[in-house]
Design brief:
This protein has helices at 2-31, 37-90, 102-107, 120-126. The chain is mainly α. Among the domains are: 1-31; 41-91. The longest helix has 54 residues, at 37-90. The termini are far apart.
Length: 127
Amino acid sequence: MELIADVLMTAGAFGAGLYCYVLAGRLKKFTTLESGMGGAIAVLSAQVDDMTRALEKARGAANGSASSLEALTERAETVAGRLELLVAAMHDLPAPTEPPSSESAVDERKLRFVRRRSSRTDLEAVE
């Protein structure tokens, strides 16, 4: 019975050693910077840095656009105030004396356009 237990114990130790060897190989591949997970982490870290720089540029552009838009809005409000004053001033103008009469429109000469067909002799000369 002890012999069977020793054989099983030796087989278990051999299996555990083999399992540890396989895990060690996987761990080496996992931590290598060129091809393993370390490389992927390094690439992702570089991408995060690039995205952070792009975000800062976009934030700067948005702040510039916001300040420009604010200046344009203030300018538009000023112009709107001036237009309101001009419209209010137009109410103070006197009404027109008389509308234009329809007789003056009849007196005007109407222009006529005349089209003339070209003669066939002109067409034959071209050919």
